[in-house]
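Practice problem: predict the structure.
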Amino acid sequence: MFVVAIRLVFMGTPEFAVPSLEALIQSPYELVAVCTQPDRKAGRGQQVVVSPVKQLASSRGIEVLQPDSLKATSAVERLASLAPELIVVAAFGQILPREVLALPKLGCVNIHPSLLPRYRGASPIPAAILQGDEVTGVTIMLMDSGLDSGPVLSQKELSVSTDDTTGSLTARLAEAGAQLVVETLGLWLEERIEPQPQEEGQASYTKAIDKEDGMIDWQLAAPQLWRRVRAFDPWPGCYTWWHGKRLKLGKVVPLEAGESGEAGKVVSLARTPAAVVGVETGDGVLGLLRVQLEGKREMSAEEFVRGQRDFIGSLLL
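Answer:
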């Protein structure tokens, strides 16, 4: 395959973007700089956290830009001074203004972890799990001023397993996106791909996830709660309250739906291959496999019950 020599800027921040950056570093393109979110203080100790993308770029001696906002004139001028012919974006964390979109003559290409136009926006991976989708995927698209609305260059489907969490699915989609973006750029720059407009009538949107989204509502059906626990793993995590303490649900399994008792009531189960304790829901029982009480380590639900004799029969709020 003939490779077109181009100057490229990569924009990304979280772990999802790392495989794509690694693939572009190893590609024949000239990676002139990486743009990522500013370092932030996080956690109880308010330690400064460096983005995974910055860590990789710095280790490879690539110039790193960290503008507070791409709307700032200084940020646009700095990017312009690099004379990028193409900008590749993967979960950067900021909306690209028109001034930035207009900089590269070959445009801006985005790696989006869904089969657009389904699940535009901030949280497409949790959305696929929440909806119970059996198939999701990754899209390479040309960016415009809309929200993930630009024409599609390529897509790749991935299956969603019943064991997938947002963490595991993100890792698989990241690897798929890295492979697909390199393949797609080669074909597109050789003018062997015709960008396809998205069908607006099929578009759906996702919102950013808040910490409060992890709070369990026991009135929901067991399958819904099972999907929520998987969708919000690793962040923000799903939790309930027991004796005034936060109880995190690490792993759960939906059991047969049917007549339910009091939503939130902990019940003993006839030993199944996995769960020995469950919680009544709005429809069915949610089997608990792994839990973590506030201030304690995560453990199997069976071990937790042995140490907390009053757990069975109690009401989770």
